[in-house]
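Two entries, shown back to back:
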Amino acid sequence: MTARGRTTSVLVTTVGAGDRSRRSDRLVVEEPLQLRLDGHLVATTMRTPGHDYELAAGFCFTEGLLAGAPVRTVRYCALGPASETDFNVVEVGSGGAPVPTPRLGTTTSSCGLCGAASIEALQARLAPLAAPVPLDAGVLASVADRVQSSQQLFAATGSAHAAAAFDPVTGEVSLVREDIGRHNAVDKVVGRLVLDGGLPATGRGLFVSGRASFEIVQKAWAAGFGLVAAVSGPSALAVETARAANLALVGFLRRGSMNVYAP
């Protein structure tokens, strides 16, 4: 597969137990994606190619850029042939969203593009959820297992995060997306729901394969998820945000055990 795909191959030297060998290794691809809304530059983020329309729509929604306006169109590079920009520019058309303020600089895959600088800013545009969803350690453990079995990119490279939408009562996983960035994987899930008319995600849970940071919780809140379940721990600000949102937050979800941090 070429670098235009989701993985690429390189030769590596494996060293161990006094032995050295050369072999081919699969690496996850990381490329910049420029996001535009109604002809205006929004941001550039580093992502793994694939589900780019979902990423663009999800980002515009979770960052509050749409301000209630619908997503009417999503397409590559409205300024010319998409091949000229290597399919790395996506335009979202809303027909009604306010003009966005560009986020200057390229964001790396390890951090989110957080338009809300504080919990107070989130509370100004998002109401607390009506009620968090029920928590069952056994059900949530089954969700982690089901998502892991769907992580094809992680299985190939060991370097991709996953996000998934699931039913916290039955454990059924309805949607899984992978990306080198945790926040991108979440935006791809939310973007798919936006494009399918599936928001708000009332009564559903959001699973993430890494830690639960502030940007993950605020994106879940914006989408209406009642639960965020993470394999690793949350940040202090993520916990504070989840409690302000009345959103259930679970961390260290492993082998049938978990830590409940909120509400």
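entry 2 starts here
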Amino acid sequence: MAEMNETQNVQENTPDSKSSEKKGKKKGIIALLLLLLAAAAVGGWWYYTSRPVMDNTTKYWFDKFAEDGSLEGKSPVEIQGILNNIVEEGMFNVSINARAIFPDGKSKGSIGMENVPQNRYYARIIMTKDDDGTVLYESQGIKPGQYIDQISLSTELDAGEYPCTVLFIITDPETLDDIGQVRVNINVVILN
């Protein structure tokens, strides 16, 4: 009978050890799931905080150098001229320096680009050299009532004057579809 009791004890210990293994596996799976959940949370936080600023109502990306307001130095006659040119809602008025002057090829210069407050469309610009099509500057979105004045060129230029074309790309603020383009000829002047 003593032998029988030992066999019974062995049989009783076997289910407990299986139960112990199952609990260990469950704890391992739970720990792995918690680790994956924590990694997903950190990844989501990083993605959310590292994105560029977006307009609250759209998915249009705005240029971080665009400033609210109108460029200083415009006379009342210039402002009235802009207002007089707005004939209908669908019209888009451009404002940019005819000569963008840079102290040298590495320094910032004044482009004086403005999406005037009376426009109803978003805009972005691409400035290229006329002789070879090199892109010298490209902005992101600019809302009506914002401007970009000081820019750096993406290509270093030697001293001289360079005829350029600035392409204003007009975007509908509701659909974010590009709806038109305006080309403006300017000269980029590098002093030194």
